[in-house]
Amino acid sequence: MSANNNYCQSDNLSPQASLQKLIEGNERYTADHLEHPHEDAQRRVELSRSQRPFAVVLGCADSRVIPELIFDQGIGDIFTIRIAGGVAGDGVIASIEYAIEHFGTQLVVVVGHESCGAVAAAIKHEAVKGKGGSLMRYIEPAVQSIITQPGDLLTNAIQAHAKRTVDILLHLEPILMNHYNSGCLEIVPAYYHLATGKVDFLSEIKSRDHDLVMV
What we know:
- It is built from eight helices and seven strands.
- By secondary structure, it is α/β, with parallel strands linked by helices.
- It has a single domain, classed as Carbonic anhydrase (Beta-carbonic Anhydrase, Chain A, 3-Layer(aba) Sandwich).
- A five-stranded mixed sheet has the order 2-1-3-4-5, with helices on both faces. Strands 6-7 form a two-stranded antiparallel ribbon.
- Strand 4 (186-192) and strand 5 form a beta hairpin.
């Protein structure tokens, strides 16, 4: 997968460097050695002119899963999108595309989390009142894909949903697929453990010349 200069004109961090920053930040978080970077008045003034987030994080609206905290990042570091179940509807996709096109962001992380209520509801086929039912159509295919898989059903479904969301995003034309095929974008699924605070990345980036490898 060779880089195409039509899509790679960006001075933002590479996918590998961006992922490493998130890994190191999560290690600080789990060890209670937080740095709380980029939170002062000077940072606010700098960002009043423009922003340059190095990663997009798509995650759940759950109050226990806050990307800036679990990755120990500050104001303007992460372009955060939170919605129940971490589903990728049109508004979410448009937001991801905006960050990639306008800020040159080269990494997207899709974070599922332990005990996700939206995924649990999809497993139980619960009748969800109001607009909540619209989320189920994004989650149920992942549930069906692992229904006979050994292990904990909820954990397997949450991870499968994150992986499926990544696969959907990677095949969206023209923006996401073209940036990925040009070597300027990686989209990685992850799983967050509530008690320990640890984030498991469910794929790895081997190099700019290799596809994402799911684990």
